[in-house]
Amino acid sequence: MKRSYVVSKFGGTSMGGRQEMERSAVISMERNSNMVVVSALSGTTDKLIQVAKLASRGLTEDCEKMVFSIKERHQALMNELPKNTRAIKILSNYFDELDLLVQNISLLKELTPKAHDHILSLGERMSSLLFSEVLRNKLQNQTVELLDARSMIKTDSNFGKATPLIEDIAKACKALNDKTVYVTQGFIGSDHDGNTTILGRGGSDYSAALFAEGMNATTLEIWTDVAGIATTDPRLCTSAKIIHEISYAEAGEMAQYGAKILHPATIAPAVRKSIPVFVGSTFEKDLPGTWIRETVENRPAVRAITKRAHQALLTICNPNMLNAYGFMGEIFGMFGKHRISVDCITTSEISIAVTVDNATLDNQKFITDLKGIGQVNVETGYSLISLIGNDLFSRSSLAKSIFNSVDEASIRMMSLGASSYNFNFLVKEEESTTCIQKLHKALIEGHK
Ligand code: ADP
Ligand code: ASP
Ligand code: MG
Q1: Which of 167, 166, 194, 172 is nearest to 184 (CA)?
Q2: Do 214 and 72 fall into the same domain?
Q3: What is the distance, to the nearest Å, from the Cα of residue 286 to the centroid of all Cα atoms in its chain?
Q4: Which domain range does residue 52 map to?
Q5: Range in 63-77, 220-234, 329-343, 425-439 with the lowest mean pLDDT
Q6: Which of 85, 137, 279, 448 is most buried (CB neighbours < 10 A)?
Q7: What is the pLDDT of residue 448?
């Protein structure tokens, strides 16, 4: 008989404290979750990043204070729970591990990518320990098992943003049974040598999707602090509305182009196994939320607007390439070599313009390598705005509406044509929010 599995992921705010954990536990019980994937307590990953940075400059009072506050918050939560000596001991071992890592990093004054991933993993390991206790105390008639995601989510050794090994994950998931409720960590995995790896910031959504794929789940649920995927980030536009049903293709584009609600890689595992994905709010659990499916009934021209902030535009120009070939190949090869993803591009005969995250500019080796191919011009301070929708090539008056709405903003670059699901353009950061509000009003709310 086919086993039916539900994988539920709870983000940082859903793990904010005792009350939030209680809410999340109730939801996972109501939804009959077989696997609960959790993020670190809200703000903990940011703090661990700070700790690691501070330690790499030598042990300071600031660093010790921050370590103390991390421990104190987790310990206070543990103290509120019914006493379990085993869990108390595990938490104290995690604290020792954190101290040891901080000591070693500060002694060497060096933060290796391996140590960075290891120290960050403690956030999810501590929160999942606490959450498994909360759930165990509620779910008396079922076995609750705390599972180390590092034994399941096998990855390569690309620390900081490791690539999961799908077949190995599927193999590991075969050992799971449908009688046990598993609680595990998002965001973390391990390579073949057993080193701890992470999947990149916001990676818990991706972990949950990988578990759902490995377990052939019937549903993947993402529980967060908003009532589903909205037509744009509700923090940018108060009239944003929740989308009740959206296709994989549209949701994938939204995630790729900056909608923080989903990690960009979340949709791919769901697509591979046709698993419907639900997105809902832990704080308003009975609202309808958003369902992401292969096909949907309503296919509007413009479904949503996203913003990807902190963008830089790289223009690579080589006049020798007039009527020559191989220029693009060389450039893309360089992006591939440095594992940098190309988001939005436009080309002319002798130059190519590419948007990248600002952080890419820290990679000096990459910039030097690019300069070996041609003259490189770097511009910063941009945001990439994307209109996500359906059949965007064939909507005749769409371009007119877009340009009318953003008339005062200067568009530095735009791209339409590679996918019928999106239309991207690059504007100055300071103009981006107004631009989104105007576009939302004209193209989604439907009035000028
Ligand atoms: P979690 O910690 O639960 O993973 P995140 O902070 O990563 O939560 O993602 C939820 C946030 O995503 C929301 O609070 C919201 O501000 C932001 N967001 C960005 N774009 C959208 C969108 N289109 N719809 C809903 N939320 C969005
Ligand atoms: N805790 C990790 C982060 O803050 C992963 C996640 O929350 O998805 O990036
Ligand atoms: Mg998130």
Answers
A1: 172
A2: yes
A3: 25
A4: 6-225
A5: 329-343
A6: 279
A7: 42
Distance 84 CA to ligand 3 centre (A): 30
Residue 425 has φ and ψ, to the nearest 5°, of -150, 155
Q: What is the pLDDT of residues 20-33, one digit of tens each?
A: 999 999 999 999 99
Task: Please give the model's pTM, rounded to 2 decimal places.
Answer: 0.94
Chosen domain end from 193, 225, 257: 225
Please tell me whether residue 442 adopts helix, strand or coil conformation.
helix
Any ligand 1 atom below 6 A from CB of 313: no
Q: Does the Cβ of 226 fall within 6 Å of ligand 1?
A: yes
Q: Which pLDDT value is given to residue 399?
A: 79
327 three-class SS: helix
Do both 312 and 220 map to the same domain?
no
Structure tokens at 190: 């391990």
- CATH number assigned to the domain comprising residue 188: 3.40.1160.10
- 37 pocket-lining for ligand 1 (C-beta < 6 Å): no
Binding site membership of 224 for ligand 1 (Cβ less than 6 Å): yes
Among 13, 261, 305, 444, the mutation site with the greatest number of ligand 1 atoms within 8 A of its Cβ is 261
Protein residues within 5 Å, CB atom, of ion ligand 3: 11, 202
pLDDT (mean) for 100-115: 96
**Nearest CA, atom 11, ligand 1:** 261
On whether both 55 and 187 belong to a single domain, the answer is yes
When mean pLDDT is compared across 277-281, 300-304, 442-446, the lowest value belongs to 442-446
Say what percent of the chain tops pLDDT 90. 82
Helices (H) and strands (E) in the chain, counts: 13, 16
For the cut 80, the answer to whether the pLDDT of residue 321 exceeds it is no
Does residue 203 line the site of ligand 1, with CB under 6 A? no
